[in-house]
Amino acid sequence: IPHVNKARDAFLNQELFWRRGVWDKYMFDGNLKTFFSVFHYTRDKRIDKGALRLDFGKIEVVDAIKMRSLWPSAQTNQPPLQLSAELSEDLKTWTSVTFKRGDKEGQTVKIAEITHNGGAHKLVDADLYSWTLQTEDSRKIRYVRVFEAPERVAEFDAWNNRQKLDGSAWRATNLFAPFKAAAPDKAWQAS
Question: What is each CA distance from 67 to 1, 30, 70, 122, 180, in whole angstroms?
Fold first, then answer.
């Protein structure tokens, strides 16, 4: 329906909407000005520090991953040099890996700091940092979880044999606690 598509596009393309970082698709759009954030207004919405979880939608063969993040320029503490993560193709077996941070990239991006319960905002500068994971050989991966991930992830890309993979069907969430912080107490099965 053309009118519905036009209304949806008008809403999603509002500058204040994308500067808030409220949509996971912004991590896969190739635009460093858009990002996926953990903040709802000024509150961190993650449970027990959360974990950035990604689902590629299908098993992909991967030999490199790069996560680019926006870090407020005025923030005095530096982003971590390493990020712990895990990779899986089936949600049962996980392999521990480490993303390593590179130097700050040269550009800055404006991000919205939302205040007054969403009624006001101001734009502030953010620096661009990247964390990479290089594997010695290609791996089959469908799921990624990054612990204590950066607050604003601008891009998340993966490659195989120097070919960038299509991330248009990928999904992400940053709300839920790491498994160790919220281990299940009980399980039920219906039959």
Answer: 35, 12, 10, 26, 23
